[in-house]
Amino acid sequence: MLGKVLPILLALIGLGGGVGAGWALRPAAEITDMSEGGGNHQTPAPASGNSAEPGHGATADGHGATDEHGITLERFDYVKLNNQFVVPIVEDGKLVAMAILGLSVEVTAGQSSSVYSREPKLRDAFLQVMFDHANSGGFRGDFTQSANMFLLRSALKEAATKTVGAVVSDVLILDIARRDV
């Protein structure tokens, strides 16, 4: 009897957990301007510091906008590169480990297509930077130390700017791991 009830009970618990997670992670409801209807007037704050609200000093393209406190808001798009980068780590002529990285490129809003159109060349430039980083010992020891990560990010951003242009504002390292072989 218990053998027949247990799978059903586990399925119901899993279903309930999925529904609960979906409900808890649903997108936040938008606050609408109800000033004409006599309701409370609430202006939603930007979800993050990356979006410009129209009517707060925004230029025609949405850049250089300021919020109600005079803080300049910039809008960016994030282009996640589809495949991870796998970098061999060689010591004394032998493969000792692999570094695996997932990257995203931060570009000016509306410029995502410039990254996608140059993605093969951008991936090549990123790989060259990562090979140089690996050959200089950047993936040895405490490879996630702030100084190492800063050097890697700076070199990746420089390579992206040379390849794609000034629309690149940053390169984000989303995933990084080292697997010894």
Keywords, separated by commas or semicolons:
four-stranded antiparallel β-sheet, 181 residues, 4 helices, single chain, 2 domains, two-stranded antiparallel ribbon, alpha+beta, GTP Cyclohydrolase I, domain 2
Overview of the molecule:
The protein is α+β, with helices and mostly antiparallel strands and 181 residues long. It has 2 domains: 73 residues, no CATH class; 104 residues, GTP Cyclohydrolase I, domain 2 (2-Layer Sandwich), CATH 3.30.1130. The protein is built from 4 helices and 6 strands, in the order H-E-E-E-E-E-H-H-H-E. The strands form 2 sheets. Strands 3, 4, 5 and 6 form a 4-stranded antiparallel β-sheet that branches. Strands 1-2 form a two-stranded antiparallel sheet. Helix 3 runs antiparallel to helix 4. The relative contact order is 0.12. About 18% of the residues have low confidence.
Unreliable stretches covering 5 or more consecutive residues: 31-63
Which H/E pattern describes the elements? HEEEEEHHHE
CATH architectural designation of the largest domain = 2-Layer Sandwich
Task: Give me the number of helical elements.
Answer: 4
CATH class of the largest domain: Alpha Beta
Care to give the gist of this entry?
This protein is α+β, with helices and mostly antiparallel strands.
What is the topology?
Blueprint: H1 2-24, E1 65-66, E2 72-73, E3 76-80, E4 85-91, E5 94-108, H2 112-117, H3 119-135, H4 146-164, E6 168-180
Helix pairs in contact: 3-4
